[in-house]
Amino acid sequence: MHTFEQISAFVAVFEQGSYNKAALQLSKSRTTVREHVKAYEDMLGYPLFQIVGKQAKPTEKATQLYRRAKIVEKQNRSLYAQSTTLFDTETHTVTICYDVITPIELMMQLEQEIAKNYPEVSIHWLHRTRKEAMNLLLTDKADIALMPYLGQLFAEREVTWKAIGNIEIGCFTRPTSPLANHDDLKIEDLLLDTQYLTENFTDLNTMLSATKVTPKVHVVSNNDLLCELLKHQGWAVMPKHYMKPYIERGELVALSLKELNKQMAFGLNAFYCFGKEDVPIFSKLLDWLSEYHSR
Q1: Best CA proximity match to 272, nearest among 136, 113, 122, 112
Q2: Staple partner for 85: which of 9, 14, 189, 275, CB 3.0–4.6 Å?
Q3: Percentage of the chain lying above the pLDDT 70 cut
């Protein structure tokens, strides 16, 4: 019978493409990872990888096994996380990570619900990128991360999630920009101008390629600064809810692109470690998040 260590080593080598990278991911030595994979191969009776230079190329049988092995690995991690969560369910502090896509109204409502139902609990709101938020979840320094959905079957880290709803995005610029006065605006017209890109979107370029269009891109980590810069030059893709005050004050305008005749939107998810939903306060918190977008 295979062991959890063997399955984890196999999945890591398959995903990373080398024993060295898999060892770094698992915080183990290359020798240990290789021994686990070798023991798994001996049990199965056939090789899983072929070494080509420094790369570990999966065999056809390894490719067929991967998906099932990934599910088993996730289930094992879920069981472990849930088991450890049961040791301490008393909550004094709730830490929530969020990025620019998260509506402020949603966060305000969540703050009010927690304060009303759990007045003894302190709430910390941390503006973080997706990568930073995932690391905080896994090190138990954050409880929930409100982040965009990447369209993947599995999260990139050992966490699970709950779908909250869709967040509409759009293209924005200053009122005096030539782009704003273009009668037949196309994506190719945007190539001639500077694009400001919020740092939170840079982590998502594997899926959200539409957010990175021009060859001249300025990445800005502070979204208030991004909007101030936008008043003087360039354009940006941003959530509509975030840009609404600037539009209402006449400081920025929304662009209408010919190729995009329907709404652009990102899915917003609440990410958390396995077992969190079994803790009463976090179960309620996830319910409140779902209720916000169902109204």
Answers
A1: 136
A2: 275
A3: 87
Strand segments (E) across the chain:
49-52, 55-58, 93-98, 122-127, 144-148, 160-173, 195-198, 217-220, 235-239, 253-255, 264-272
CA distances to 69, 70, 90, 146 from 278, in Å: 26, 23, 12, 19
From 28, 80, 103, select the one nearest 266 (Cα to Cα): 103
Nearest to 189 by CA among 214, 217, 216: 214
How far is CA 173 from its chain centroid?
A: 26
Q: 24-49, pLDDT tens digit by residue?
A: 988 899 999 999 999 999 989 999 99
Residue 27 CB: number of other CB atoms within 10 A? Answer: 6
Which of left, alpha, beta for 145 (phi over 0: left; psi -120 to 50: alpha)?
A: beta
| End-to-end Cα spacing for the chain | 50
* CA-based torsion, 66, 68, 74, 80: positive or negative: negative
**Ramachandran angles phi, psi of 142, nearest 5°:** -145, 155
Of 282, 286, 254, the residue nearest 268 (C-alpha): 286
- Burial class of residue 5, CB neighbours in 10 A (0-12, 13-18, 19+): middle
Query: Could you tell me which of 6, 7, 278 has the C-alpha nearest to residue 143?
Result: 278
